[in-house]
Amino acid sequence: PTQTIQVDSTAAVPTSTPPTACIDVEDPVPNNFVLSPNFTAGQLSTQTAISNYYIRAQVGLTVEDIVCNLQAWAENIGEPLSSKYGRSNILVTSGFRHGTGTSQHNRGQAVDFQFPNKTNTEVYQVAVWIRDNLNYDQLILEYGGNRPWIHCSFNRAGNRPHTQFNKFGTRVSPGNYVWGELRDMQ
Prior knowledge:
- The protein is an alpha+beta fold.
- It is built from 2 helices and 8 strands.
- The chain has helices spanning about 65-85, 120-135; strands at about 35, 40, 90-95, 110-115, 140, 150-155, 170-175, 175-180.
- The strands form 2 sheets. It has a 6-stranded mixed β-sheet with strand order 3-4-6-5-7-8. A two-stranded antiparallel ribbon has the order 1-2.
- β1 (about 35) and β2 form a beta hairpin.
- The relative contact order is 0.18.
């Protein structure tokens, strides 16, 4: 498939997000540092299934800023997912990552996760539920390898509005995204 991009020429204002009461944290951040009832700092950084990075200051953010971003993700995305699908069914594959680029993972704003016991169609249905029910910044249903995963971000400074061409979409192959559409790739 070729890359499909829908261009949005309107000036978009970020949508407001609920405030996060950031908790003071020590550096280095302990793995058992509680971000929300179902998520610890380690579960979104050093103890993920694929990428394991300790939380450090980078991209102009302090350790406290990054932990607060992870906390906001846990409260606004992780907790509703846990309530709906059960925390034990969510496999976090990647959370915070080291880097200097524009990835929201580098800021503690994005987490990738899978549902190992769900079919592709069931994971697609989870993505649709997120799209329709959660206040997220970006949602990508990603196909690659033998199991789909979901990339979902939350920006406590304000999520991108629904008018953005890259608010949600499907990664159909490496580098190829279909924006504005979630696809069930059985």
